[in-house]
Design goal:
Number of helices: 6
Strand order of the largest sheet: 1-2
Structural class: mainly alpha
Shape: elongated
Strand content: under 5%
Distance between the termini: 118 Å
């Protein structure tokens, strides 16, 4: 190539190219690390997004379920409000024409029935109180009224005009027991000088409450199912103040007297062909795999109901 000048590259250019290549390699590595980091963060964000989407879906389902329960409870509340404060009569109102056909004649208004005993039905029979004891009470005229109002001649007693009323007399009284003492008039030396009549039997030795009081307490507590405190409050109206601790202590002392009755009941239940038990706790499951009926059966066995077995699964 004549006339052409060919310049040679400087000695430093290969070094610059190699530095540039190395710099580009470093940048490529940095970019790759950035891309890897971004991909990792992207994967974590996707996982978090999936987790929160699932949590949001569960929250929505829970909110829908709670809303349905709220609606059901509101309906039950309205039903209870209607039962408590609504109309109690099942008779339809005279203005209620929801069951009438269109264009039909209006039904004639009916007269409401009167309350009380109906005239077309026989009345109740009179109760018989002949089994009650009779306490006679004689009522007489005052002394100035036992004369004729015209002439003043004395009136002569005649027969009586009788009538009856039912009365209840509840009173507390003190039973004063007077034991007669007898003095010996003979000269015997081996006999006591004074002999006293036997004391009256007591349900609780040295107790101040008599048998009739304990009978009233037991009947009122176990037959009428009334708390003893109310019975004592009622007695205070009658002027009888009995301490609650006295009654509680007396009931503890009376408990051994009922042991023979309890033993007889246990013996009777053991010999019976059927064992009665309450299955109200049948659906209750307890720790250890026992259900409510098994617990009741165990309790009855401890109380003397021998030979009792839980209800089989096939029995309804």
């Amino acid at each position: 190539m004549d006339g052409a000048l060919v310049e040679s590259l400087p000695a430093t250019e290969p070094a610059d190219v190699s530095d540039l290549v190395r710099q580009l390699c470093r940048e490529v590595l940095d970019l790759r690390q950035d891309v890897h980091e971004l991909r990792r963060e992207n994967a974590e964000l996707r996982q978090q997004a999936g987790y929160w989407k699932g949590m949001h879906a569960r929250a929505v389902q829970r909110a829908e379920r709670l809303e349905a329960e709220v609606q059901q409870l509101r309906g039950e509340n309205r039903k209870l409000q209607d039962q408590l404060f609504g109309r109690k009569s099942e008779a339809a109102s005279s203005r209620d024409r929801s069951n009438d056909l269109d264009g039909g004649d209006a039904p004639a208004p009916t007269t409401p029935t009167k309350r009380g005993q109906r005239t077309d039905r026989p009345g109740p029979t009179r109760r018989d109180y002949s089994h009650l004891p009779v306490v006679e009470e004689l009522r007489e005229l005052a002394e100035p009224q036992r004369v004729c109002p015209q002439c003043g001649v004395a009136l002569v007693p005649s027969d009586t005009e009788d009538s009856e009323q039912i009365e209840i007399e509840v009173r507390a009284y003190r039973r004063r027991i007077r034991r007669r003492r007898y003095q010996r008039t003979c000269s015997c030396s081996n006999c006591p000088r004074t002999i006293t009549a036997a004391s009256a039997p007591k349900l609780i030795p040295k107790g101040v409450l008599g048998v009739s009081v304990w009978v009233e307490i037991l009947l009122d507590k176990f037959a009428s199912y009334r708390p003893t405190e109310r019975l004592l409050a009622h007695w205070r109206f009658l002027g009888l103040g009995v301490a609650a601790g006295t009654v509680a202590g007396g009931l503890r002392r009376l408990e051994p007297l009922f042991q023979p009755l309890y033993d007889a009941l246990v013996k009777r239940n053991t010999a019976s062909a059927f064992a009665q038990a309450d299955d109200a706790l049948d659906g209750l499951r307890c720790p250890g795999g026992q259900d409510g009926l098994s617990l009741v059966a165990v309790g009855l066995l401890e109380r003397g109901y021998r030979g009792l077995s839980p209800r089989p699964e096939s029995q309804p």
